Hints:
By secondary structure, the protein is α+β, with helices and mostly antiparallel strands. It has helices spanning 10-15, 26-41, 47-53, 60-68, 74-88, 157-161, 163-170, 180-194, 198-206, 210-223, 240-248, 287-290, 351-358, 362-373, 385-408, 422-446, 451-458, and strands spanning 100-109, 119-120, 131-142, 145-154, 230-233, 252-256, 262-264, 284-286, 300-304, 307-318, 322-330, 340-344.
Amino acid sequence: MQLPIMSVAPVVRTHAEIFRNGFANRRQFLHFQHYLTGLIVLENKGLTNIARCVLASADKTNLSRFFSEAPWQEHKVNKLRIEYMVKSTTAHRLEAKESALLIDDTLCEHVGSLFEYVDRHYNHGEGSYPLAHNLVTSHYVSGAVRFPVAARLYRRYEEMTQWADFVQKHFPAETIPTQKKQRTAFHQRIDPLLLADPAFRTLHEQFCTKIALATELVKDAIAHDLAFQWTLFDGWYLSPEFLAVIEQQGKDWISILKNNRNLETNSFVLLDAQGQRIQLTGPHIKACDLVPLIPQSAYKPLTIGERTYYTFTLTVRIPSIGKVRLVISFDNPDLQGTYALLVSNRLDCTAKQLITTYLLRWPIETFYQDSKQQLGLDEYRMRTAEAIKKHWCLVFVAYSFLHLECLSASLPKKHTSPQQSIGEAARQQAQALIQDLILHTHHALSNGQSIHDLVASLFAKQLPSIPKPVLCQV
């Protein structure tokens, strides 16, 4: 049993009005506020629990229809949210040249396959393939301001096209390989034949790679007039197609470079410790093979904040990408252990400028952590993709509301990061609701309501009935 919630969270009450036009009627707008309150203050974010704990909320069935049937559109609500965030953060944002759009993706893992479009996606951290939805998102950072912009659901090619079913239909005698290399070769042999089926071709043409989704997100952020100069992402998104779109929009980019990427050997000169040119054989060298050739004396210490990096910088050409600025960075003076490789189209930037800017990417990681641990980004039980996308949309709204509370603690001067965490802001909302409950209880008892009737009214949705106390006669 949990404490009943008497009203919507104060942060929701403060900011919700701007979203009224995003809903068709007053009832939908109330569902919106109650669901946000549940996401922010309840440990269990399920529809059933929110409906049970929020006294003014409709029952689970009505709340469920709010996601599955009500004709509100998450993209319209998201547009209202972005416009509101831009307007509300003017005092905290920096100039565009110091601001960035971050691109990344995360897994929302589930048990069971009844969720629409759920599939097995690779988890890089654990080396496993859990059942999950893969969410590609964009995130805006400008000084202390940081909030999610938009999201796209990535669907694997085989799931999107129902590939296995079409293979079984057209090639019933074929066995689909399970090993990656053999499966890739099987795709190359079978897929051109499957495209002769109009139904398969239609699904094939609807497929979007993560690169295509990331491209949509960049264009979407620009369409919303977000002021940023940098686009930051990891090595997964370092593709010529994506970079071309970023540069066509007049933006700069920084990415992690995978250490097995080739560099063109005729595009740079590398000197040994004696200042003599190191002869490189072949037209290309892998980045991981280049690093051991660089003399230790070539690395320069670089302090950013409280950390010192040991860096080497040069301009190189990468096949299919072109000329880039490469920064090799270790976290120790002995140059031992792992290292980071950064690349950027900004050939004029120093190692300090590129590392400092790329560190702005960290807020998207904390967003994924906070939105999952605090706001239930991956705690949904809706079955349809339409309802799930609406849930994600409202998690973004809840996060944005809490972020505005965090920023209010940073006034009157600008800071480089919020002075309060999302978790602290959420706990303050829960404390405010407990205070409302205490005041309501005090007022009811002061006006003569019996304890039994009060408890029965407060917990009517959590307990089927509360028996009246029986007085024992002596």
